[in-house]
Write a structure and sequence with these properties.
155 residues, 9 helices
Length: 155
């Protein structure tokens, strides 16, 4: 979860991006505030309130959450919930002349990961990346794949 990522301070752009896509950008701050409160209350339970205040533990918690918030702003992930995949499953089936299978979902997930990595990814480069990924997961029928995708993407 987001709170675990913040506690561990291990920021992985794709992992965070995929989590934040499930949360509206309006709720991110609420989750962060709730995390700060939760961590603070956990510490208060273990120590006396006076001890917690004197040790300025709350400041340390806030700094950790601010670091996470600054990271998602810097990496352009704050509004990631608004990001739409460059292609739909139907688009991919047409481009690659595929039937509906779980592989389409896998390719869509891969596409989203690539868009999180590079928000400026365009459709042509996305198709090239998807071709390579499809070859990895389905075997190497590159001639058929290239012919089908080139014909269908130019429609």
């Amino acid at each position: 979860t987001i709170l675990n990522i913040i506690k561990e301070e291990q920021f992985d752009k794709i992992k965070i991006g995929k989590l934040l896509r499930k949360i509206t950008h309006k709720n991110i701050l609420s989750i962060l505030y709730a995390g700060i409160a939760y961590e603070y209350l956990e510490i208060v339970k273990l120590n006396s309130l006076l001890e917690v205040i004197n040790n300025e533990i709350l400041d340390k918690i806030i700094v950790k959450y601010k670091k996470f918030f600054d990271y998602i702003v810097k990496e352009d992930l704050l509004f990631i919930d608004k990001m739409k995949p460059l292609f739909t499953g139907k688009d991919l089936m047409a481009i690659f002349n595929m039937k509906p299978t779980g592989k389409i979902g896998f390719l869509l997930e891969y596409l989203i990961e690539q868009q999180i990595k590079d928000p400026k990814l365009d459709k042509n480069l996305a198709i090239e990346l998807l071709k390579k990924k499809k070859e990895e997961i389905m075997g190497n029928n590159s001639n058929e794949l290239n012919e089908a995708s080139n014909k269908n993407v130019n429609k």
